[in-house]
Batch of 4 targets.
Target 1
Amino acid sequence: MSIRRHIGIAAALVSSAIAGTTLSVGAAHADATTLYVNNSPTAHCSDAGTGAQAQPYCTVQAAADAAQPGQTVQIAEGAGTYAEQVTVTHSGTPGHPITFQGLPDTDKLPTAQVGVVGGHGFSLSKVHDVTIQGLAFNTAQEAVLVADSDRIVVDGNTLLGAGSAKAAGIRLTGATTASTVSRNRIGASGGAGIAVDPGVTGTVVTTNALTSNIGGGIVVTDAPGTVVTSNTVAENCGTGVSLTGASSGAVIENNIITATGPTTIRCPQAGPVEFVVSAGSVTGTKADYNVVHPGTGVNAGSQAYSWAGTVYTSPAAFTAATGQGAHDVDTDPGFNLGGNSNDDVTPQRDTNALDSADAGAPGELTTDLLGNQRVDDPLVDNTGTGTATYYDRGAIERQNPFAVGLSWDWNNRIPAGHPLDKAFLGIVYSPWSKATATIDFGDGTGPQPFTPSQVVHTYPGPGTYRAVLSATDGLGNTKTSTTNITVDPVGPLSAPTISAVQNSNYGPTHVELYATVTSPWPLVSTTVDFGDGSGTVVRNGSANGIPHEYPHVGTYTATATFVDDHGRSLTYSQQVRVDGWTRSGTPVTGRWDGRASTHVGVFYSGMWSLATTNDNSGRVNTVYFGQSGDVPVTGSWDGGHDQLGIYRDGVFALRHDDTSVTTVSFGAPGDVPVPALWDGNGHAQLAVYRPSTNTFAVRHDDGSVSTATLGQQGDLPIVGDWDGVGHAQLGIARPDRQWGGTNTFALRHDDGTITTATYGAVGDFPVTGDWQGRGRTTFGIYRPQAATFSLSNAYAGVSDSVFAIITTF
């Protein structure tokens, strides 16, 4: 279907010739075309002046008393309200009306409010050729009362609560002829929204929105020749549109009349019928292309039509009986109704009300309630008639929803190290046609193709930039959205830190050194000098846990030099203290007495304190073997219960029950000893764990060596019979060095699977053993600060054992 857009500025309102009527007429033409009204304290207004822009009138009445044919009275917002009833006594001439015009805001809504408590906003009697346009009203009586006047136009006003004293919002009465009420928003009137009284002829009521009016929507009584076209009448009390008495020769087309809405309006009584034409009004009257939807709202149970006294419940029944309404439909237009006087009556979804009106109906405008042009929705079939087949029914023409939006990402989801990068969130919504979009970041790089989503751009330097997203849809429409973005100057490298974490599992003076810095740009390298003459170590990025063995206990000055990818550097020094073995010693575990359960102990500088029970009984045996700097080991060297041993620079020294010692070289300096029952033959085999490669190496009885890798840098090796199968399996304990962190134990089983559990806290040493003698190994921790053991007994279904071991260090 071709997309067509009607570009007419406005349709001529239907009018009737005026003849044989004597009306008061002012001077033929005035010299000034505009009179100004502004009661703002800063406007320096005066009713004694001439209404010039430099000194406007203070009241609308003063301008009305001075206005001549062809002049416009421009009414500014001023102080917000003009508390007066304007009585119009001057008339314009055909083609040169007197126009009272308010100034709209950016949403095309009136800003100047006119009216007085207990009275009207405008009262017109026996005048002609006057237009009242773009004003707001809130009055107890009719906002606009027109009596015995001709060619009056009431257009584009907002009446919310006008006629609150059971009066209509707008009333035409007496012998008024050829007048038009168009594009007004009328809500919450105490009476009807629009009332056309007996004696009035040739009135056009077109493109108005009427909601929540207590006395009904449009009420025409004994007023022949009335045109009711393209109005939206929704959730009013009483009848939506009624022609009663002798209102013959009427046209009712393209309206949406619905009672569907919330039940929050307090109606005196429900209107039994939405669209009423009395028997005296049917002659020469045409009704077609209307949406009549009684619905289930404030008028629940109401009927659709009453024609010449007969009620019809549906368009089909109405047409079959009367021949009228051949193109009427009963469909819910999907308004966003909330029971308020300013409800949104824009169709919210595709319905039969769209692209289906009679464009040639009397009083049909080429612009809608909001001043928008008529447009063709390509997603809806054109079923209308007349000069164009795509006009919508009702007061509002559904517009192309094409929209664009651009904002920068306030969540700043830019990875660290990209200080000149900014993320933008862009949306292009174009359901009617495919749109193409470009984005100009405002830094001279020019427009670039844009796909709606998040886009990241690198700016050349600090500053404030204006980014513009521009999109053009397939109908030739272009929309833009802009946002300002500030790129801050790139700061220096800052907040350097150096810390050393002592890990005595690897030796008495073993530390893991951490060097960090805050760097806006990516950090390329960190060079660490430990301060002991051993040279430097270079790491990519920051230095996280560089292992180092200091030559002896003492205080050293460690230095780190940080370099970012822009060549900037920062050197920082910090003293670190190396204390050697803690006074609480190194934990050991074993089956000292040959019983099934494993007991614990502590090694310190060659002295072993071995507990005989896993409780606070204090029963401890003391044995001396080894020296400061040795790593303690235990195992069943001879079969049966466990014996003691030490590991020193790649050499195991194994102590037997007869106090003899066997030495075996296996591993290298820096390795961690992990002897255990690897072969399952009743005595232990030697093994080591190499932290630099995370590799376990087991020396079997036949002299062969098997290896396996598990874990990552910083993990601590643990071994035990996790499955209770008579031989040891691998495992690691991963300390969480963050404050408040926990240790993770990862146990590898014979089938290759790994189970994990958390236990202990920062600074705890892992231990393993069969604490309850149940035939398989579990884990625990030793807390050196308090020389306290916590042994997990969950595997045995009993409470954990927590106790301190008494030593004589």
Target 2
Amino acid sequence: MLRAMLRDLRAHTGRMAMTLVAIVLGVAFVVATWVLSDSTAASLAGEGGRSTVDVVAQSPTNEAVLTEDDLARLSRLPGVRRATGILAARASLIGADGKLVAGAQDHAGTAWDDTDRFTILDGRPPTSADEVALSQAVAASANLRLGSRARVILGDGREVEAHVVGLFDYRMLGMETAPSVAFAPTTAHEYLGNEYDRIELHGPGLAPQVRAALPDPAIAVHTGAELTAKAHDEAASAAESTRESLLAFAVVALLVGMFVIANTFTMLVTQRVRQFALLRAVGATRRQVRRAVVLEAGALGVVGATIGVAVGIALGLLGMWAFTPDGEPVTYSVSPQGILVGYAVGIGVTVAAAYGSARRAAEAPPVAALRTDATPPRRTTVARTTAGAVLLVAGAATVASTAGPNLSTTERVVCMGAGVAGWLAVLLLAPVLAHAALTPLSRLLSRRRGPAVRLATRNAVRDPRRTAATSSALLVGLALVCAFATLGETMVSTLGGAVRNMVPPSATILRSASGVDPLSTDVLDRVRATPGVTGVAADRYTLVTVSTAGGTAASSISATEPAGFTTVLTPKLVEGNADLHRGVVVDTDQAAVLGLQLGDDLAIKFPNSRPVHQRVTGLIDTVEGQPLIYVDVAETPNWFHGNVTSIYATGATPSAVRQALDSEFRNRPDVVVTDREGVIATETADFQLLLSAMYAMFGAAIAIAIFGVINTLALSVMERTRELGLLRAIGAPRHLIRRTVRTESIVICTYGGALGIVVGTLFGAVMQHAMLGNPLQVTEIPTTTIATALLGMLTVGALSALWPAHRAARTNILTAIQTE
């Protein structure tokens, strides 16, 4: 039996080609994900880190607090061989083009020393005030080289110009931020301040002494081994997060692949029913036939997995190389676990998808071998249709029951689950929906169109299961694209609305050009002193932990001045009052998630600081991505006051204020002066970039679905060889056959695309309701994406049919008529 099946598989490799492509693409996606995540972890925690430091005393916050006295005190401890104070402060490097060099600026400046932190790659260390050394990778980004004149803007707004005399590579300790600018040790204190970010100590068993010697118990003391272990743990966690995110897209691709594989084996079993019946007639048991088909699928899975693993490794290594910045060290890693997962996925998915067909093959009765038109018994769809109908009704009822405003966390999860249930219901009801949609279309076109269209639509309706399986593969990919497009359009609209509600059109806004760092400490004072500016509100945005009577959760927060919050900004108050002197103001949806009402108490926990206890005094309407809690800056820790992320300025003449601020910061590339619409454009552009990356990920699933359409049409042509021969025998020209197959492909692709768009748009509405808290009817329809998808499906339908249509048109009439 095994030899017979493998011989048959080798004799008809062409009919498995597209199925093999589906397996290869799915496995390659999984393995590439594994290689990327493993290589990321190896690069983050790879060799090049320092292991010679024994103990580190470090500031507990972003603010440097260790003094020269602390350094002297620790250096005198018994057993200390060396103590080094490390300066780490804001230093914004300006590139040769006059623009801020991308990357974090907050700890980018440091002092050169003779420890093993630095490795000179070219030139020499800086020794005077007009000299500086740059990280090689950052220098390349800034288009600066040895001898260039570098501009650096310091944390207090001062600008320093110095000659580049050295390029270095930096060896990190733990997860510290690698500096990009190193000043001479004689002038570094003047530029970066007198306080140290940390003190590194060399000597055995120093940790207990260091803890006892420090006057501030909040200062963190770690051994070098602890920091190294923490770096490895965080690298592994980051890699795991990357892997989980990418595997979600890989699962979608594999799900689509399962539709393709299952559909292929269903058609192959239909075509080979006489072969299975003959095997039964000569003594093969049902178990043997079933096992033979499963082994055939397993052999195909092994071949596909082998190719997919090789392609996945190549793609993963290529992706790691492409996305690593120039000059950054990278470690490539291919783990045995990733390879084993690739084989397990390839073989497991193929066998699972083919198992239903294997069972049907085993049911072929021996008497079927005597029939010239043997077909397997039709499967009933009653159970599938019933399950789909129940899921659809239950999902719709659940979504309706959670359609109200201010959902709790549990209600959001239930709403999302109901949306997924509705999606699964559509997949289960796919044959019924295909028959219901295409039957009237076939009748309509049969009266008004030519023979090619009539034949094509009747072929699509002839086997609703096959049409449904083929179109479902397209449905999954397109539905995901449309769902996230709907979510994205709604989020962009909601985000724009939230910013417009909070910020008046007359306000001029200042932000850091890096997009990730706070503004320099001098910017707020300079804005207040600018002529024409009468009102200023400073936004200090961060993530904190919020504790309430119902539990603890993470939330975004903004600390601002109470006067500016109500005079410069325009919060959309829903209930209570917006006076931050009385307490905090919370977004209505966030209040529902945290279980808060007016008058309730909460505790805000900033890093390494005592909790800030406040009372809810007002509820406002805002959205995720904006601060969800506003608090009086005076109530926050002192170190947080300088963490200004945005500044809003108004005056009697808004245009004069904008002009004055543009002039004030004309020579400050680290500061962006913009307006309300500019902020909206920047924030939505970042989100649109994320959506574009997601669409590219879903592209793998759509590509697999396209191959599935080609495969279905090709096998359908093989299945209808006799029928095509008869059509040719009674005078049908070749162009009619080609047009028939092409039209059938367009019908299937258009149906799958249209259903995917409907399902995706509805699921996107549920997603935005559960995630953003907007009413279901407040959903933005992604018309551009929908139009592109429809046009794409028409194109895919036409292109997918090229090879099958060509093959069908070249069918030999006499050979086809003789085919059994």
Target 3
Amino acid sequence: MDVSTLQVFAIVVAGLVTLAAVALFARTIVGFVAKFRLGRPEERTDEPGTRTLTLLREFLGHTRMARKPLVAVAHWGVMLGFLLLTTTLATAYGQLFDPSFALPLIGHWPPYIWLAELFGWFTILGIVALIVVRQRQHPRSLERRSRFWGSTFWQAYVVEFVILGVGLCIVALRGLEYALGRATGASWADLVHFPTTGWLGRFFEGMSVQALESTIVAVALLKILISMGWMITVAVTPTMGVAWHRFLAFVNIWFKRHADGRTSLGELQPIAVNGRPVDFEDIEELDEDAALGVGKVEDFTWKGLLDFSTCTECGRCQEQCPAWHTDKPLSPKMLVVNLRNHHHAKAPWLLADSEHRDAAMKAFEALGDGERPEQLHGIPTTAVAEAARPLVGETVGDPTVPDGGGVIDPEVLWSCTTCGACVEQCPVDIEHVDSIVDMRRYQNLIESAFPNELGGLFKNLENKGNPWGMNARLRMDWAKDLPFEVPMAGADVEDLSAVDYLFWVGCAGAFEDRAKKTTRAVAELLHTAGVSFAVLGDGETCTGDPARRAGNEFLFQMLAMQNVEVLKEVNATKIVVTCAHCFNTIKNEYPQVGGQFEVVHHTQLLNRLVREKRLTPVSRPDQADTAGVASTASSVTYHDPCYLGRHNQVYAPPRELLGALPGVEMREMPRHGEKSFCCGAGGARMWMEEKLGTRINLNRTEEALATGADRIAIGCPFCRVMLSDGLTQKQSEGAREEVEVVDVAQMLLAAVRRAEEPGTEEPVAEEPAADAPADTQAPGDGAPVAEQAQAEDDALQEGVAPTQDEAVEATDGPESAVERPSDSSPTADTDGTPER
């Protein structure tokens, strides 16, 4: 075989570039491992088989990408093309030596050829689609509303150019191979072997064999140079997440928190030292240098550091973040990017020995604002400067993309509502909420640096056992004048095995006037259905959710252990709660302190009771008895509480309940289900003022009002407070007065009651700025909900609620027997809930 000058040149150039690329790439991989090992230890290797299946499911099924179908299909083609078409790169190397080269065994095997051509075209079309998506959503037109705001565009353009260039080279080489085969009379030069590229070969007909061979060598060299140039670029840019996620995503998904693939939401992870949860009863035995939370980037676990480098800057988290949507400085994407860049920039200093680190830092401090050398005691000066930055502190310039000062601005850190939208949307399973809360823990426990409003919250929780600082003796005021007894555990019921459920009322359900309506409605419905229950009364204290989300892990542990002890003393096994935050904490976090209970949300239990026909909705809105806390209307929209929906995947039960109400039309908001928009109360934000941007609750209230529904149904007292306050403000600006924020249980209660046998309970006293009047109704027919948000994952969710026709036709539904109370003493906190 004669080797032309062009081939010699191509072989030499390709060989040198490939050697450089492989060497640099290998060096960067070794560097990654060393940098990730700087993080604290964490065990993530349980159930390796299950983890592998989860990885394959997410990788091949693109389950996390499917929320954007067009992008998912395009990305799936590009991703598989990147992996499968590595064989075409091997072919290109062979073609430098012999333009007619084909891989042994499979080179002319039709199934392989068909697959290669399919994904060659798929790669081109897919990347073109993704380029169009990026340009249509470019910040130059959408500004902050673009999910790509803040992303590093030159890196994205490099990746797009490489993929498009490689894809074009692949199909061009296929066409040239067909033309060369036809010119040489090869038996494989037919449409069976070139089903989608043979037509391209016809453009090269008339060229000599030598010209075709030279063109193949040139295009093969171009393909190799594009591929190796990309490898060199990413090797020297370890912070190029848009490229590195191609490799790191596999690792990050395999090591995700839950081996079975569940989203890393629900329970927060306990504070750990040396990979083991801290026992707060033995806190004095901890080393004085032990980090409680994250105060430096190396305090993150190795998984947290891996998270940061895996970020592809796609902006899906940013697109869903309630803080970002209301013009706060927090962008989950930019928070991760800033931490990633800081980690890589500081790494050389961290990897040096302590002697050199100390000497370099002293030399750096002595420099002041003077000229800085490239290195200080063998450490890059930029790394020493990065080590001098506080992880959380006042920043210079835009706090979202700081020019200096702290890495994460306090306003960024405390803007988070821990709603979990970022984690839910992330296609590579980054655990943003854990990182944010870990930084809050350090600020709280070590630095005592937290928003002023939280000081009062912590004091009330510690001294009074509730966020409002109310006297525990008032916890049973919600039950005054009910026509049935509400037994208390320990007083009326010694052992909770004697009743069906412990009804966990919660602080809001006991003290907040609007939430009391939900408590009374649920109690009446359970009584009507014949479900026996008891409450803890003044033996109940806050679950500790706001303390934990605010970073005060000590206070959470104290409250949690106290509650678990009480629950065990009364032999509680089955608990029903009305607060989504209590639901999440008792169900998912109390097992961390020894409390294992079967916990259901009231919408789940009530939905089951309706399915079992122990509760039968029979009254249409224009026939319903809305005395007392009951409320209904002909149309309703449902707001998904973050800690019920995203954190615990409970989407269907509330909708099934609303769908079972006769004459009530369900109107979904554009953002619902897993894409539901936060009310703004989570992450202890309920007790902090919104001083930046616009109000999250107003944003959500405006969306609810836009549906035209007469009722905004909720399943969480936090959501009720936020949306009620938002509605009050919007009504003062001219919104419809007949709209009211109610709990799902209140609407069910109105439907269960008989209009011809009305209840006789008087309305509970309301705060002036609470819900709209309960007696306002919009009569008319409506269809039940036809669409459910998604299949219910919770084991307690089974079956379907009765249809509207079944409910209307029922003749033996339970009747209400509620008497009027003689009075209703308001028990709202004297300090008041912060104005929203």
Target 4
Amino acid sequence: MQRKRVGLLINQVVSDYIAELLHGALRAAEDSRSDIYIFSSALMVNDPEDESEANAIRYNRNVLYSYSTRMGLDAVVVAYDGIKQCNKPENFERLLGEIEQKPCIILETKLPGFRCLRTDQAGTIRSMMEHLILHHGYKRIGCIRGPVGSPDADLRFQIYKGMMEKYGLPSGNDYVETGTFMPDSGELVRNLVRRHPDLQAVVCSNDFVAISACDVLRRMGYKPGVDIAVTGVDNIEKSMRVSRPITTVETGIYSLGYEGVHEAIRLLEGLPQQTFYVPSRLVVRQSCGCRAGMSDFDEAIRRLFPMTEESLPKIARAICDFSHKRAPSEKKETAIFEDVEAVLFAEWKLAEGENLDEEVFRHIESISRKLNRLHMSANLFLSVYGCAAEILGEGIGDVERKLAYQQGRYRAVTYFMRFNERNSREEVVDVGKSALEAPSLADAIAHNIDVDKAMLGQIAEILVRMNLSNACILLFPDPLPVYRKNGAFQTGEKAAIVLKLVDGKHEFPADPQHLQYRQLDGLLEELYPEEAPAAARMVFVLQSEGEQFGLLLCDVGGNNYVEAYLASHQIGSALKVVQLQRQHYELEKQLQSAINTISEKNRILERITNYDSLTMVYNRRGLLESMKKAMSRNQGCEGILLFMDINNLKQINDRYGHNAGDYAISSFARILRSVLRGEDIIGRYGGDEFMALLINDRTISESSERGAEQSIRHRIRKAFDAFNDVSGKPFYVEASIGTYFFSITEQVDFDHLFSMADRLLYLDKQYKRTDVAKEPYADV
């Protein structure tokens, strides 16, 4: 038979109620060899009406529930009350609409169109009210009710009102306080006592509130269970461990989770619903004023089994069943059975006068380990087992044997408690160490822009150190907003597997920078094929500041819920940092690109404004600016200003056309660039006139100026002669040159320089060729 994949939607894994429900669901998954995927949005209760930024961030985690319908699960089981409380009404209605499309089991309430499974608590709560009214004779009974609109809270309050009216007792608004299911509602008992100093009892919405109310009453000077009775509902583990254990209603939370998963599987197999209600029972303890004891189990053992050696296996099985919060008639196998049976037989022999077998301590250690692995309460087991052992010891008549039996029992119980405490302490230390590892995840990711194997290897090592040796990270193609424009939660449709951990060994893609994205609803089958062992996994959305980046799937075992939550939070935050770094990197690239574009345009603009387009040397504006800058940098040096013009340019234009004239101008500039140095400044002053500024770093004496001038003229004219020899043009391109030497100082007058150089140019023009043509020119 193909293994089923069942989703479980719960609110918070750290509450006793949800922990009990989860334990039942996990056991059902083990029994049916099914995979269970746990969707828990937060470790704290979200108040949808709280508009603070912190709560808005927490509320974003509720997007997780929408993934229960996107991941290819076969069915979902919904803890209705908790999910409804932490969602805004409009989002909750959308979620129900999405869930309705899949095979679904609704827990805790009756909902049209769904298969529903509820606890049969109404009759038992009535019995509890009658216990207070008839057995104890209480007449003034107050009520701290749960939130209005919660099916459980409304039902419990209606029963309170109905029973009070049935017996003609006061139940007006002054006897009622409206709170929540959270411990802080216990403070409301103050208001009831102030209004009614003669109050005899308080009926609370659940055990959390009842335990808190007892604490408040003690601080007010009252003794719970003596001065004022207090009752709860749910029979959470802590209700047994307070100084005055709470009288409560066992609502079958464990069975609710267990049967919920089994009903989901029956639904998938096309079978009719088998369980509609999970039975509840009244658990009478000291907080209502009764004596100490565990009467329900005590009576069951005495009624069902005589205390004989032959009945010990049956009693051992009953202890296992009660420890599992199952009825003894279910007869289901339990992993601790053989160890419990061995301890019982050892105690039987002890009661018969034999010494305590040292082998019993090995069985005690085994029980402690298995209770933790099987998500069972060690305190509940110890209470149940202790009750059976007390009954066993009642048959010992000899005082010395009875004393030896009690000492042996004390030794065994003390060993169990110390061993279990040591395990718990080690577990807390392990969780603390794992919590310290969590920031390392952020460091491993946040210092990278791209996903690579080195980074994934680091993440894998850290997850293993956090007790998350079986995990998987999926990434979406791009970050995804938590909300759509219409306010609905948005989910990813495709994802890529970037890291898979199996028993601490990691696998990741051959090329992490080129990921293969697949439809989300088919990834579970690829990740966990049929031949893979069945497992319970928690699903987290990797998100931060309103954006989703992917999913984290972690196998859960023991109590590594906190580690898984911390890991998801750190990875989500780190991926946000990576996204911001990528955005920063892209912005830097865009900025640099913009700067380069602007620089290029500035260079073009500079050429347009400072360069002559025909010759590509400076125009007049560029020439004057460049000369000023050069002279300001070279104060005290010798300057040589060349003022030149093209001989007979008008003849060239008139005889051969303006194209020929342009050719002569551009050639003139090209020849100058070839003769002068790269650092010399050359520009077209206007029309056929050019200037060049040459700077010499040492002073030239008057006697050598003439030689320098002749050398410059010679090089320039030689270059023109060489050009004319090979130009293939019918005209000469030649220059007249005025050369003026000067010292560069701050007092240099440009007009004076140009005037002196122009005068020398004029003198040189007297010697120019009169006809530009190389051959006699015939004007046609």
